[in-house]
Specification:
Layout lengths: L1 H18 L21 E5 L7 E7 L4 E9 L6 E3 L3 E3 L4 E7 H10 L10 E9 L13 E10 L1
Parallel strand pairs: 1-8
Antiparallel strand pairs: 2-6, 3-4, 3-7, 5-6, 7-8
Length: about 150
């Protein structure tokens, strides 16, 4: 048995060494960051919390411009937000959205009184320089969070 082990051991060692070899752009090169929003869902009480704000946070992929918008499934009304975006630690961007602005969208979109109707906050990232690696689609990628609201 020892005779067979002494023959196979070096062969297995060479096979493992060859299997661990990778190209230059393989292991050790980080993949481009994917964009995602911190929370997939938000619960908002618009009846008496209009002085509050919702803080939206997402990963900055560092090679993109961003558009933040509100949308819903009931109709085609989309509202783009131009609120200031703040850069934070660890490549995180954030935007404060006042509840008053969310309540205004609910009214504008005609969502008042529709039981169980949610709306969405969309963050669309579009690559600035396509020659750099990016996890975004060339035409842009969108991350979405659902807002469950009470009115």
């Amino acid at each position: 048995m020892k005779k067979y082990m002494s023959i196979w051991a070096p062969l297995f060692a060479v096979m493992f060494m060859l299997a661990s070899c990778v190209d230059e752009d393989g292991a050790g090169v980080p993949a481009p960051k994917s964009m995602f929003i911190e929370s997939a869902e938000y619960n908002v009480d618009l009846t008496n919390d209009e002085t509050k704000t919702l803080t939206l946070r997402w990963i900055d992929v560092e090679n993109a411009t961003y558009k933040v918008s509100l949308s819903n499934q009931e109709n085609d009304i989309i509202q783009e937000l131009s609120n200031p975006v703040t850069a934070g630690d660890l490549s995180v961007l954030s935007m404060d959205i006042p509840y008053e602005q969310l309540a205004s969208y609910v009214e504008t979109a005609g969502l008042n009184g529709i039981v169980g109707c949610d709306f969405f906050i969309n963050v669309t990232g579009t690559p600035v320089d396509l020659s750099k690696p990016t996890a975004l689609a060339p035409s842009g990628s969108t991350a979405r969070s659902t807002v469950h609201y009470v009115e």
